[in-house]
Amino acid sequence: MAVERIKYQAGNVIGHGALVWNDKITTKRPLLLVMSNWLGVTDTIIKRAEKMAGDKYIAFVGCMYGEGKTAEGPPESEKLMMAVRSDRVEGRKRVNAALQTMIAEADKRGIGDSSKKAAVGFCFGGGNVLELARSGADLDAVVCLHGDLATTMPAKKGDIKAAIFVLHGSKDPIAGQADRNALENELDAAGANWQMLTFGGRLHSFAEEETDMPGVAKFDAGAAHQTYRMLDDFIQDAFAKRL
User: Residue 75: left if φ>0, alpha if ψ -120 to 50, beta else—which one?
Assistant: First the structure.
């Protein structure tokens, strides 16, 4: 897999993202935006993007912090995340910049099929791809994995163009039942095409192998296996207009 680090303007910061693709394949492939958890654009999320891209997609790991900032965990990661979440307008500029950079960089190399675009986000990144959808971005599919579901800028009728798939743990203490209910109501009111799957008993971050925060976040191999298979099926169905 080829990995190329890309710097780009993202709102009021310079984003440090990564374009990921199998450079042994010459045919154009759909585009997959990957937004990371609260640690930022780390080697771990780039490796995850490599696996997700495989032979199917051109992936781009978008940056929400700028200037190459990453964190090893709390409290630094919480501070970085909350700075972005406190300004939804700026946050939407940054995630939309990642989408446009992915399109431009793939097109420049002649490797991307920009008629087919999807976005997947993990935790903090899940909230960011939902904000991308709420902003009216031109995408086929948006997948939120154990994400931040709440927003201060709910979608209005007709705003959301993408089909939305939310995968969440029933015992997630970060975004609980009230947040899931609020999101369902929001998506219905917006007339969105959406699905939500709740994994019984799972906590936050169940699809990320490195996660272990007792009582808060824990990797679950079975849920993760199903998650990656189902999200790929969902995206492929969205591309084929079967949803």
Answer: alpha
